[in-house]
Design goal:
The protein is of the alpha/beta class and about 270 residues long. The chain has a single domain (about 30-270), classed as Alpha-Beta Barrel (TIM Barrel), CATH 3.20.20.370. Helices cover about 40% and strands about 15% of the residues. It has 10 helices and 12 strands. The protein has helices spanning about 5-25, 50-65, 70-80, 100-110, 120-125, 140-150, 170-190, 205-215, 250-255, 265-270, and strands spanning about 35, 40, 50, 65-70, 85-95, 115-120, 130, 135, 155, 195, 220-225, 240. Helix 2 packs parallel to helix 4 and helix 7 (about 170-190) packs across helix 8. The protein binds zinc ion. The site of zinc ion has 5 residues, from strand 5.
């Protein structure tokens, strides 16, 4: 869908969304989980790479207007069925070096917490995650450990090779999930129990994937299915809001407010 059509949809939906939030039943968590990938001043054709000043304006806005909590805190509250008001969660996928170079200083400046989902074969430099002919560098383990020590940044698994989990044969699926968890746990010396599906649309994971995640001790998993709300039933396919390069601060505010939540219907139509 073109950007202008999406924006028109957001304006149409935003009024209804305000009413929906007032009447949403208890058990619905109105806590947007933001999904970022990359922050860099370099000019790029890659839609998922935000300019640092744009990213900083967004972090400043959420820190000033919301309670930014960690994904772990949200998940733990969802398990306990405790309510959280006016909160936002920040996540990054893949593990690009610029998360340390450009995003981490902004997280420190605003005392903002975030979770980074690591693709372990990428961090280990066994594979490239190339987008539109650009080769982006991975984080190093030293950078990951430095961010972990700050207690602002926590880590989750994003698969070992970034393959779509629904395309992996049953006999390999366990290893794809286990490797990513095991490598991060060994390097960080802590339990890793949060997961984000590569690509993250409904066709990219299955009931079998969720069974394997549960068997390996994961307590929740993030998709890229669009919504600012989640229920405890969705702990293994948590909806997220993707933020990209073209989001100026006004569009970002619309996304966080839930004005684009109508996209949830389209993402669920794509079920194969
Ligand atoms: Zn990814």
């Amino acid at each position: 869908m073109k950007k202008k059509i999406k924006l028109a949809g957001a304006y149409l939906w935003s009024g209804f969304n305000k009413i929906r939030k007032i009447f949403s039943c208890s058990g619905v968590y109105n806590v947007p989980i933001l999904c970022y990938h990359s922050v860099s001043p370099e000019n790029t054709s890659s839609g998922f790479r935000l300019k640092p000043d744009n990213f900083e304006a967004q972090i400043k806005f959420i820190v000033s207007n919301y309670n930014v909590i960690s994904l772990k805190e949200l998940v733990s509250n969802m398990y306990k069925k405790e309510t959280i008001k006016n909160a936002v969660v920040v996540t990054f996928d893949d593990g690009y070096k610029d998360n340390f170079t450009y995003a981490y200083p902004i997280f420190k400046k605003y005392n903002c917490c975030a979770t980074i989902f690591l693709t372990t074969a990428f961090i280990e430099k066994e594979i490239n995650l190339t987008e539109e002919n650009e080769v982006l560098e991975p984080l190093t383990w030293a950078e990951i450990i430095e961010m972990k020590m700050s207690k602002l940044i926590s880590f989750g698994a994003h698969g070992h090779t970034h393959r779509m989990l629904s395309n992996i044969a049953s006999n390999e699926l366990g290893d794809e999930i286990k490797f990513s968890k095991g490598i991060i746990e060994k390097k960080l010396g802590e339990n890793i129990d949060l997961f984000a599906y590569p690509n993250g649309q409904l066709r990219d994971f299955s009931k079998e994937t969720i069974t394997v995640l549960k068997k390996n001790g994961f307590i929740a998993a993030c998709s890229t299915i669009w919504s600012t709300t989640n229920t405890p039933k969705e702990l293994y396919y948590l909806n997220r809001i993707i933020v990209d390069r073209d989001d100026d601060i006004n569009n970002f505010k619309l996304k966080v407010s839930g004005a684009y939540d109508y996209l949830w219907f389209f993402h669920n139509l794509k079920r194969s």
